[in-house]
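so my prof wants the structure for this chain in the tokens format not the other one, which i didnt know existed until like an hour ago. anyway here's the sequence
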Amino acid sequence: MTEPEDKELTHRRFYKAEQEASFAGAQGTGTPQTQDPAYKLAFLDSEFLLRDELRPVRFQLELLKPEMLLEEANIGSTLVIYGSARIPSPEHVDAVRATATTPEREKVVERLIEKSKYYEEARKLAHTASACAIVEKGMRQFVVCSGGGPSIMEAANRGATEAGAESLGLNIVLPHEQAPNPYVTPHLSFQFHYFALRKMHFLLRARAVAVFPGGFGTFDEFFELLTLIQTGKMKPIPILLFGKDYWNRVVNFEALAEEGVINPNDTDLFRWCETAEEGWQHIVDFYGLECG
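here's what i got, hopefully its the right format
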């Protein structure tokens, strides 16, 4: 004879949150007491959760949600790809060139177009890592992760998609429109309010990072990564820096060492790259991978 559920020793004694929420929704709402916001369950009260005093709770939620979903998706590590949101893909070069209406703008546009080759290299790198489909202890390794937006980020997710693999997109809420690119795997497409939590999730599972030419956002992500490794807060991982001419034009690494504000060997924290092939080979050599 089967015992009723409430007689089983292993059966939970408390209702789940979603059950309690359904009970609350089924209650009558025709009295002043039940209509007042104070009566809402705290975890269903968005106005309450958005109060300034609840910022620590929102931090915790932005830390927990992606972490839990990535664990459930069996993602053990990531290949993170940083880069500009403005560099055009090769197929959009003509459209971007048409936007140059002044000589000054034409010079800028041509510089961006010159860097469209890095869209292809990011795409190839993501494709190579994804095609290797490395699995260790049941967890997927070197899953491609981008900021989820256009340009270099799109190239990363696109390369993974073309290899038949899933990829992550970590988007950020901005005052202007910011939507995930169409190549991000839908159930791995996340949206953040806090830059700090987004950057933390970029690196929590990162086993390699590829940095392509970019602006303030890329600088922020790249230099924070360098700082974490330089100071010993994070163990060394392959950092692939694509576009030596660009980076040496906008950052004088040698001058930093000459001025004594970094050690000369701090420039060994990253590896110069121009092609996806040499970038992936560095990752293979670093970890002793069999997939080359």
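also thought this was worth mentioning. The radius of gyration is 24 Å.
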